[in-house]
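Researcher: Structure prediction, please.
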Amino acid sequence: MPYKDAQARKRYMKGYCRHYRRTKRGKQVLDDARRRYRNSGKQVRAVRLYQQHHPEIQRKAWKNFRGSTKDKKYRENARLLHLYGITLSDKRKMYRKQKGLCLLCGRKLNGVRKSHVDHSHETDRVRGLLHGICNLAVGYFENADVSPFRMEKYLRRGQS
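Model: Predicted structure follows.
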């Protein structure tokens, strides 16, 4: 955009669009868009009408998709992207890089899907994959006023 000012940008785009609509290609694009818009409404109405008259088919289709592995992967991917900014394939790469081991305790993880993503709440940077309980422990230590060294000293005192 040539203008950072919102009003100037609006004036520029208005003039540009007016000029573009006058060209042959601009008219074709506009006509195509209008045609698609008109047809989309008809298609949506037809689909909705079909769904109203055949609710059992709609329920069956939804039930089949809802429980499918494709849907589970889709939802897991969306959740990872939303929370941590990574995809399921990124999580798999992290799992392979860690050789299937928890970064905190060093024991074997229960698989890619069951491992928990550890991230910093301050920087939102992903640190690695952990067991669920290890991830909880890290979260408690991050938010607690007690240092890990003091906690270790306290636990050792209870053993003797």
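Model: The chain has two domains: 6-53, 69-159.
Researcher: Thanks, that helps.
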